[in-house]
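Shapes recur. Our protein:

. . .
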Amino acid sequence: MSIKTILVSQPKPQGKKSPYFDLADKYNIKIDFRSFIHVEGIDAQEFRTQKIDLKEHSAVILTSKTAVDHYFRIAEEMRFEVPDSMKYFCISEAIAFYLQKYVAYRKRKIFHGRQTIVDLVDTLKKHKKEQFLLPCTDILRDKIPTTLEANKINYRKAVLYRTVASDLSDLENVMYDMLVFYSPGGIESLLKNFPEFKQKETVIAAFGPTTANAIVKNKLRLDLHAPQPNAPSMTGAIENFVKNAKN
């Protein structure tokens, strides 16, 4: 089928440059963006039920910018002044730099990996005496705690925010040729908002194995899956699909 309209279940890219914008111009496709999920922080009262004392932790493992925001938010709500001696272990350099929003970067002990928790393991092992706190969401990927436990890292998980379905009721009567998903949460949001959703001719695309598995698990048809050897990006996979559909 010909693809003329696409809905991407993510916020619209900032700035004027994006592979999605190039794709839209090249193939005359209308591409809309909409977050299917959003994050809500838990309050201090709910945090107390986890019986975590922030003062007992000398280091923090940060896996996202969202985790950074909510760690400092809950610290403020709990009236905990984060000490200058706190050590920060970030899974990427981008997250490490993001800490500048809250701390004097060059005056703090900040470490980072390349992109995943595995990249950070060797650094964490060099600081095994630390009491680590892992700020996270309620749907933390298993790989992170599994990796920490396998390497005997002494840590405590602190759920500081949760991922919830956004209200998509305004899309009820809007049809798209293709829906693009980047997380299992996006699939859950689709079905929560539209329990009677029928896929029919709508093409469903997924990025990553967990998202693809969620589509299949919910008995939807997986039409497009990235990354692939010939298309490492979602936009590259969509372009290949569009070109094949025209032939």
